[in-house]
Amino acid sequence: MAKESKKYRSKGFSADRKQKNALTGFFTAISIIYLLPIAIVIMNSFKANGAVSTKTFAWPTADTFVGWANYIKGMTFGNYPFMKSVFFSFVITVLSVALILLCTSMAAWYISRVGSKLSNLVYYLCVFSMVVPFQMVMYTLSRTADRLKLNTPWTIPIVYLGFGAGLAVFMFAGFIRSIPLEIEEAAAIDGCGPLGTFFKVVLPMLKPTLISVGVLEIMWVWNDYLLPYLVLDTNTYMTIPIHIQYLQGSYGHTDMGATMALITLSIIPVIVFYLSCQKYIIKGVAAGAVKG
Amino acid sequence: MASLSLEHISKIYDNGFKAVNDFNLDIEDKEFIIFVGPSGCGKSTTLRMIAGLEDISEGTLKIDGKVMNDVEPKDRDIAMVFQNYALYPHMTVFDNMAFALKNKKVPKDEIDKRVNEAAKILGLENLLERKPKALSGGQRQRVAMGRAIVRDPKVFLMDEPLSNLDAKLRVQMRVEINKLHERLGATIIYVTHDQTEAMTLGTRIVVMKEGVIQQIDTPQNLYNKPHNLFVAGFIGSPQMNFIDVTIEEDGEKTYAAAGNTRVLIPEDKAAVLKREGFSGKTVTMGIRPEDLYVEEMYIESTPEDVIEAEVSASELLGAETFLYFTFAGVQLTARVSPNTHVRTGEAIKLALDMSKSHFFNKENELAI
């Protein structure tokens, strides 16, 4: 009897392990497929310009390997300093994300707590804005941004605030609704006004959502090409994606090696940031989803 | 500490629903007032109006003689303990307790002193550096208490603070709260739907139903002299037995008759019933389960107060036994000694202690 049950159990266990192994193999394959483009970009950033287009998938050989040459070339190409583009990308990203986090968390708090018809309407407008494609509004938007002088790195965050608000308000509101109202009432009794309640009590509780919204918005703003290209005066202000685009010279000539090098440089900060915040992202995405 | 006065307080919501209707109460310094009633009776709403978390639609709220209707919660000098504790999850126990004092800009060493004092009273000294999520339910409850104590407020408001605890811990904390009341000499307003908490803690109890005060009295008076049918039924567990009886006069004596049985009403109660003109009329008679006796001794000594009924169920609870039986078409309960051995379906005799009986007008449900 005992022998039989042992046999049965070991059978079940091995079936379980088989399934596990199959899943591991499957997801390993998917991960490789996902990572392959990035690996190819990094690999090609060390190859000579010609070899990038002719032997794209080959490992660099003694003939094609050029070391850091592509990087040096990319960063010194043209008459616009690469570091300036990095600076503007950085400024726009930091200002935009800070503005989005501050304004939308406050807005979501208000919307979730007031619960009037008007606030509900605002909430649905925010959610609706997520489904409006950028291409639909980009021409009118770039004209408006020009008129309102929102065409500098210091003012373009306001435009980003408008575009980022939908997702951010949606995520914050979902999380705030899961916070018991009594905590805020306790704060009111403990001597906080609305601002004190928000900054001392609500905002610290939002930390996981702040980080996940922050990461999503940082990845979007940092990599965004079209909006700054349309809105900014690109002679004066370039961001990294615009700068990479400018490596494409006249008559369609493109320095592919240098382009790969700059793309590699531009994705490093986001990857580092994402990896260091990863555990909060998963927490934050799940946090607003269901009532705690 | 302070006195409170609630004058004609009402709460009317936007949709016209009247949650609290003409609430009048004067609370003296150091009183332990309990608001009790079924769910939705307006007890929590009243408490929240005192706290300033809900607007007062009508009436005046005074704390220490000062009108508080439009004063912000933080300026009312009150502290509140919530049902779900409402601790700040991102702060340590110490910071939770110190939060109100920090907001008031109390000097740091004073904060340390007061928090440590409160922690000592509540046995939280070793937990001050922990976050709420690392505490058990009982510990969280004590932190919520501590947060109120350090404030040294004029009034403590407690909204069902024990209802999230398990039965054993609830009894323990009930005793702790009672001690705390004596130690701090605080004015406490306490909301509960648990009548045991109400009876054991309160110096006075306010019984509410559908937004209206039914009776304000000491626990003893509520139990012995309920003003109406609702209070009589709400206070006491198992609840009071109610039987519709007709008042019959037979010479000098007055009887309460139901079906074929009639029981003698004591002279003092009979006099009141007669004076109020209930002779020959039907009234509701109430008698508590513990005032029904199965012992031969009682049955023999009061042969005119005996009823006969068939037992439909009996529950042995260790220290007592509940007998359920049907009499005159209504289900009644008797609380008897655990040594009573009665089988289900058996017909038994029960003596009613009619000196403890209550009579209620059937029309307005008020006590006669």
Overview of this structure, please?
The complex is a heterodimer of chains A (292) and B (368). With 292 residues, chain A is mostly helical. Chain A contains 13 helices and no strands. In chain A, helix 4 crosses helix 10. Chain B has 368 residues and is of the alpha+beta class. Chain B folds into 2 domains: 4-234, P-loop containing nucleotide triphosphate hydrolases (Rossmann fold); 241-360, OB fold (Dihydrolipoamide Acetyltransferase, E2P) (Beta Barrel), CATH 2.40.50. Chain B has a 6-stranded mixed sheet with strand order 6-7-8-3-9-10, sandwiched between helices. A 5-stranded antiparallel sheet of chain B has the order 13-12-11-14-20. A 5-stranded antiparallel sheet of chain B has the order 15-19-16-17-18. The interface between A and B is medium-sized, with 18 and 23 residues.
Number of domains of chain A: 2
Percent in strands of chain A? under 5%
Number of distinct beta strands of chain A = 0
Question: Averaging pLDDT over every residue of chain A, what do you get?
Answer: 85
The helix fraction of chain A, in percent, is over 70%
Average pLDDT of chain B, to the nearest integer?
Answer: 90
Q: Tell me the strand percentage band of chain B.
A: 25-35%
Q: Name the CATH homologous superfamily of the largest domain in chain B.
A: P-loop containing nucleotide triphosphate hydrolases
Highest CATH level, the class of the largest domain in chain A: Mainly Alpha
Q: Round the Cα radius of gyration of chain B to an integer and report it.
A: 25 Å
Q: Please tally the β strands of chain B and state the result.
A: 20
Q: Summarize the helix and strand pattern of chain A as letters.
A: HHHHHHHHHHHHH
Tally the helices of chain B: what do you get?
Answer: 10
Largest interface, counted by CB within 8 Å of the partner chain's CB = A-B, 18 and 23 residues
**Run of helices and strands of chain B:** EEEHEEEHHHEHEHEEHHEEEHEEHEEEEE
Which percent range fits the helix content of chain B? Answer: 25-40%
Uncertain residue segments of chain A = 288-292
Query: Radius of gyration of chain A from the CA trace?
Result: 25 Å
What CATH calls the topology of the largest domain in chain B is Rossmann fold
SS element count, helices of chain A: 13
Main β-sheet of chain A: number of strands, strand sense, barrel status?
none
